[in-house]
Design brief:
The chain is α+β, with helices and mostly antiparallel strands. It has ten helices and twelve strands.
Length: about 450
């Protein structure tokens, strides 16, 4: 299989070479026609000069001889009756005389005749011009000039030699140019190919250095972004496995320890009851964690279908706050809710808002404040949930919706915000977060509303 470098080189050089060949042939025809046209104009000029001498009764013999010698041809003059008066220059065998007889009548009738004849003896081409000498609009003589084209052929040949030399130089330049072009075009492609192979083998640290500011440069930049994203996803995957293992191991270890203590019979009845309650509590935590993992997986894989219906977001939020009354403790929740209708899955949206509100509660002091509002903004419903807690470091903002993310690197976070984000995106919405460390946080859920 030929590489793209070889193909590009062959296609480019072939195309340029064919253009050069066509140009060479075309130039040859143009040059030959140009010389022929120039010869015709020269012959007409000579004939007109001789005609001036004849019509003014001046001696034209010397001029005719000079012209015949200069063109290495023949000059003949006939009177108005068709009788040959003078003939100068080369005899050029009988072909010229026969040509003169063939067109003499046309010339004496006042027409200028130009023709090119093939001589049979030497197979050389001769151009003939028949020119009428007129005086007072009356033809008084017929002037014939015969010029061999051998001189023109020689000039054309010399010119074509020069063009051929230029053609060979241009071919060599196109050969080198095609090679350089194919190299410059395929070099970044080969870099991209090598990087793609590295990425496919699991090396996400590879980066492509391409200076092209075109589609290839954009492709290289896209590959770099892909490698960066894959590295982030790989880190998230590893963190997810590590965090999941940690989150599962802790309750399992507690359950096992308490169960072993009960099994060994070293506890009194009150301790058995206390340990049994702890086992039930840890089992619930474990069950909730597994359910959250499964729920997030279903959301991300499209395994959950939306049960869409009209929802009043004010009523939905008020119901959530009522259920969380005990959870909020001494925290004060301030509300400013407008009646806004939206099409959505009520259970899923309830889960999303609940997770975000619980997150605000968990990151607000025991006597802190939480502010919840819902406003119509054009075609969008904007639900704002803010708190006066410690805020989020700006460096952590891009990662807060990752699974098990926690700003405290010593412990794993949960799945609440990740699940909320997936649910909102399923409803063609988005969550925007504004926060600064020490200034609280604002979560804005933006959903399509129904007028």
């Amino acid at each position: 299989m030929k590489s793209i470098k070889v193909k590009l080189y062959l296609y480019t050089f072939s195309m340029v070479f064919l253009i050069l060949v066509a140009t060479f042939i075309l130039q040859g025809n143009i040059i030959e026609r140009g010389f022929s046209g120039s010869l015709k104009q020269s012959m007409e000029s000579y004939a007109a000069e001789i005609s001036k001498y004849i019509t003014s009764n001046r001696n034209y013999q010397y001029l005719a001889e000079q012209i015949a010698a200069s063109i290495n041809g023949r000059v003949s003059v006939y009177d108005s009756s068709g009788t040959l008066m003078e003939s100068y220059g080369r005899l050029m065998f009988g072909r010229t005389a026969r040509t003169e007889r063939e067109i003499l009548g046309e010339v004496l009738s006042g027409r200028t005749v130009y023709r090119t004849d093939q001589r049979n003896f030497q197979r050389s081409t001769v151009s003939t011009l028949g020119f009428p000498a007129k005086k007072d609009d009356k033809v008084i003589a017929a002037i014939f000039i015969h010029s061999p084209l051998s001189g023109i052929k020689s000039e054309v040949k010399n010119t074509m030699k020069n063009i051929l030399a230029l053609f060979l130089i241009a071919s060599a330049v196109s050969f080198a140019g095609a090679y350089l072009l194919s190299n410059s075009f395929t070099r970044p492609i080969l870099k991209i190919t090598g990087a793609a192979k590295e990425i496919s083998s699991g090396n996400y640290d590879v980066r492509i250095s391409v200076e092209n500011r075109d589609e290839i440069g954009e492709l290289a930049q896209t590959i770099n972004e892909l490698a960066k994203s894959l590295k982030n996803y790989e880190n998230l995957r590893r963190d997810f496995i590590a965090n999941t293992t940690h989150e599962l191991r802790t309750p399992i270890s507690i359950i096992k320890s308490y169960a072993e203590a009960i099994y060994d019979g070293i506890l009194n009845s009150e301790e058995v009851k206390e340990y049994s309650y702890s086992i039930i509590e840890e089992s619930d935590k474990l069950n909730n964690l597994v359910n959250e993992i499964l729920e997030l997986s279903k959301l991300q894989s499209g395994g959950i279908k939306l049960n869409l219906k009209m929802i009043n977001l004010k009523i939905l939020l008020e119901g959530i706050l009522k259920e969380l009354e005990i959870l909020k403790g001494d925290r004060t929740i301030h509300t400013d809710l407008d009646d806004i209708a939206a099409a959505g899955d009520e259970e899923l949206l309830k889960r999303a808002f609940t997770n975000i509100i619980i997150n605000a509660v968990n990151h607000t002091g025991p006597s802190g404040n939480i502010y919840i509002s819902s406003k119509q903004n054009g075609k969008w419903a904007v639900i704002s949930i803010s708190d006066d807690g410690p805020g989020i470091d700006e460096r952590d903002l891009p990662y807060i919706f990752n699974r098990f993310f926690s700003k405290d690197k010593r412990r794993a976070g949960g799945l609440g915000l990740a699940i909320a984000n997936e649910i909102v995106m399923m409803h063609s919405g988005r969550i925007e977060v504004k926060s600064k460390k020490g200034s609280g946080s604002v979560f804005m859920v933006i959903l399509p509303s129904v007028p």
